[in-house]
Amino acid sequence: VGMSSVPLINVSLLPNGWEVRYDARGRAYFVDHNTRTTTYVHPATNTATPQPMIPVSFVPVPVAMIPRSTMQPQLQQPLIPQPVSVPTAEIAKLNVTPVRKETNEISFTLNGEKKTLVNPDPKMTVNDYIRTMTKLTGTKISCGEGGCGACTVTLTRFDQTLNKEVSESINSCLRPICSTNGMEITTTEGIGSKKKGFHPVQERIAECEGTQCGFCTPGMVMNMYSLLQQNPSPTSDQIEKHFDGNICRCTGYRPILTAMKTFASDAPSACKSQGSCSKLGDLEDLCVPNFQKYDPSLYPKPHCGHVLQLENQLVNQVEETTFSSTVNGVTWYTPTTCQDVYTLLDQNKPSPCKLVVGNTSIGIYKDDPCKVMIDVSQIPELTKATLSSSEAVIGAAVTINDLIQNLNSWKSSVSQETQNLFSALVKHMSKIATVQVRNVGSIAGNIMICHDHPEFPSDMYCVMMGAGATVSVGSSTGILSSVNMSDLVNMDMTGKMILSIRIPLAQPGQIFKSYKVMLRHTNAHALVNAAFNLKVNGSNLVVGTPTIVYGGLIGHPTRMTKTEAFLAGKNVTDQTVFNSAMSILQQEAIVAPAPTGKDAYRKSLVSSLFYKFFLNLQPSLPVNLVSASKDLLFERPVSFGRQQYPTSRAEFPLGEPIPKLAAKLQASGEAIYTADEQAPVGTLFAAIVLSTVAKATLVSLDATAALSMPGVKNFYSAKNIPADKNIINLSPNEEIFASKEISFFGQMLGLIVADTQRHADDAAKAVKATYSNVQQPLLTIEDAIAANSYWEDDTPPVQKGNVETGFRNSDFVIEGSVSCGSQYHFYMETQSVMVLPDEGEKVKVIGACQMVSLAQTLVAKALGKNSSQVQVETRRLGGAYGGKSSRNMPFFCAVAMASQDLGVAVRGVMDINSNMDAIGKRHPYRCDYKIGITKTGMLVAGKFQLYANKGASLDGGAPTGPALMSLDNCYNWPNFYASSKVCKTNIPANTSTRGPGWVQAIFISEHVIEHVASYLGKPADQIKAQNLYQAGQVTPYGQTLTYFTVREMWEEVKLKIKFQERVEDIRKFNENSKWIKRGISLCPTKFCVYWAGDNQAALVNVFADGTVQIFTSGIEMGQGLFTKVAQAVAYSLGVPMGSITVAKTTTSSLPNAQGTGGSVTSELCVQAALIACNQINERLAPWRRQLGGAPSWNTLVSTALQNGVDLQGKGYFDPANSPNGPCQYMSYGVACLEVEVDTLTGENQILRCDMTFDSGVSMNPNVDIGQVEGGFIMGLGIHMNEEIYYNSDGKLITNGTWEYKPPMAMDIPIEFNVSLLKNSVNKNGVLGSKAVGEPPLTMGCAGLFAVQNAISAARGAGYFELNSPCTVDRIQQTCQIDPKNFSLK
User: pTM of whole model > 0.90?
Assistant: First the structure.
């Protein structure tokens, strides 16, 4: 190898399939590709290679390789060796003393390529490195909190305890790059691409329509890939549970789970598919393609010769290397011994040091003041877990998932009581955070978060305290071997660290049970958690003192010592004992106010959970109490369902259920989003500065501290901008930067520009604002009503007949009020824009927006330019749902002004907290109503007063028009009057959110019908059915229903699902279950679809080689717009889909179009494209005839071009008013939901959903069913999970994934059946199709009404109000549970 100090190896003696390599010290080792193992022993001479006499800083020389020809012939490709530990005997032969070495370098591999970093930034995450240093943009950044999974990558490390390589999914947004030394990072680009072939996971998620906007897809792919690396044949249950950390706002999860379960060992044949779709009558099943059985050996991980881990694993056995790095005053250390840690802790006193394993705490506590970070994950004694005859000893750095695996593996060697203990711990710990967090988050880390932050509701602390665990704490002065968990909370841990956690094994008669109540099934912190540990003898008497722990009440988990003392020696089957213990517990348990409230609920859970535990202590239970002893959220079967659609194969590719065009590129990370666009050298980054009060006068802004921070270039505020350019024409006098008046918490005050996004974000927080005249803000509709605070609303009332006469003619008149809360859009791609100076003082804006023409106009005004000087383009959106229509425009303008001032490109990507603080959401609504009905339940008259919370600005006008026109839903009101008021409050201006107004109004309408049914004591489905419209009737807003398919679907659904039988089954279930109740609800929808004024355009270019390029004015944001347009063009021109590409949307190609929204842009762009195709076909017609009538496409194109024919078509479609009323047509649907509710806790799950939707003649059933499912699950989120909560100061508490909870994969219906209505033709639509994006959301309220039906079974007859969302606390409190009824018999 060219150096005399390095021993030469005789390569010729090596057997076939072997090669020699050199480690970091220059010492030879051998790789056996046949067995994928490594050794220091020469395979021919059986002697260990000597250690060279070289400096420890020696850099390894190039590897000596065996010629490929000498490899064994059966090897199709170079095998990848897996590392194995070097036997101690071989190390002993070396006769060397381990060398202590310090370095400021780390090395790791990224997609098989070795990377070496010198003095890396301790604050740099793996995501930062991947996206900014390597320009691999497949790995996304969304929440930056470890709460959404978009950033998921695979991390491969060598586990010395298991003596094998381990691959795990991690959140790259949390993992520091400093902690990856010797590891392998794999991103979606590393496992497959269009060029080198797609990986089966990428392929299947695309083929199964598991991607819509696609922003979450790379994270989904890598999560599944990681699971397959661990277990190539997982079960369906394991797969579903593995997706507890990945959010998808678009798909509703069903198609993603369908795709992933094709890898399952127990997947049914229907899931693995035998090829063609089955056909049932006029409907076809949406089937999974016929995938080949997954063979992991065909898809090896990307390695760079697998050298790195082997070198580190081998070298670490002969030297101890510590790593440190300091950047911007923050230092990272990676010591190898506990003594090293003690030294570092002592050296840095009194400054706080942060001990790190997974660093997952930064997802919650982002502003960490620690300047010293110590990675303890490489200390062997901290990563071990052992089991003895009396206890399990868990090293402090053992991860949560490793502990789970250890506990499961130990069950076979312990007593039944200990098996039960371990099972209970595993079940609870499996609900901590997510797979990605549990993979790297340590046990001690979780405990220490709670130690340092009492408000953190640590499940680990709670269950360990309940299990009687103790901890060993070490420092330079010695070791405390047995610290009680109750004492640890008050221990000063400065200079100390946890070494291990000791869990005592269970004794005979010992019973352990724990509970966690949260806002959704997975990935949610505990509202209240509890652990109970009690020992009983054969006489059911409590032996000794039990342990009762509650968390989430007053901070740290707390033992209920008075209750414990009372129960000692008592009989657990005695009702009197239980009652007395409950009384003591209720007095002892103190509940402190929480940021999101729910104080009364949390207090009531103390009693409910104690009761559930006592039920588990009973030797036997009556039938009606058995279900209450179970954990509803922990016991969920694998989801399944059926998707059916009608189709006409004769018109393919139109109507063909094909995947979206870019689906595979989205899966492989090759699809480009705004923040992925290549930026020129020197691009700067922007972050917004937000107000920290809701109603005040801005006195001054001080950016001095921010401007002195690393990388900061400038600060902009209203003082830097002429007043006229600071006004943005979204509503009267709305400003880009607040100049004086502060009208909501989160209002944009300024903009920081820096050299990186992280530097900009950090500096934005350092800008200090001074306020005066701080006032109590108006936040709710009730606040606005009390203060008479309204925006001017010129929306006319909707009326029909005479309601006063109707009331006089009614048998009964009832009144009520109901409210519907807000909802965050939760687009996975936060607000993003890049502005680039162009030649001739032009500007290019690359933005994530739904309205490129509006962006062009507003940016031009802000910059003092003409619109022709501003080009706006959008390639695709990572979700939008109305949230990228207008409220992002101030951000766009601010970034554009900074770019113009500095003369360089400036990019801005909002973090999720700023995004949620600054951008408005769905409008909250309240409706006060008065209803007249007959004795039989026929509707006579309805009077509705709507209130919409608009917020601090009008954002283009009053939002109540669609709501007023949707209050009738599917029901015929002879007399009807509805009016609205728009509330002016101190929250961000609420804005369009998927189905704006329709969703709230249809919920209100269904509530009113439920109220009528309750009043009359009749089934709600009966009242609904008898009041449904009939075709030809006219709505209160003058729309003639030329056709009305709801009646047909209503009967079809009821017949298909055997509705009456299920109602009876539910009644019987409820009779035999005191605390767990079931409910069912049927909900129809009538969705008014508008076309008028929504002009769209398309440009179709035919090239000389016959390929076709399409430009549309519509934005692709997951709804399949580009795919449908391409299908229509392929059908119209008669060309194959493979010859068509759709270009990104830009104002330069198609100016002056309306934005994308309202569920109609796809069909309108299709119509525009068909107009363009008709132009081309008309020009080609003479040449087609001349060539015999049926020439090949390429011949026809070539001939036409040779004869000067223009093969560019421009289509512009400006819809006229509908002759039947304000709506072009109606979309209809019917959904039936069955739910199960634990009335003791409010927890619930959706057992089944059956839905039929009238989509007309679907242009693509694959896309449309995906839209129906995704929209419906988003609708469920509105009414079941998602709660927007402002505190009294106007600060949004639910401004991130920690508190805001959209549905996840385990929240969808267990059985989820969707069908598209057969024989439906929409004569008023494009090609007979209908809008599908928004209408299904309106049926999501069926979940709430099914819950209401279940609550009614618990409460008994009588009306009660259940506002939306019906979160667990609202459900339980509405059930009016009385602990006096807690019976044990």
Answer: yes
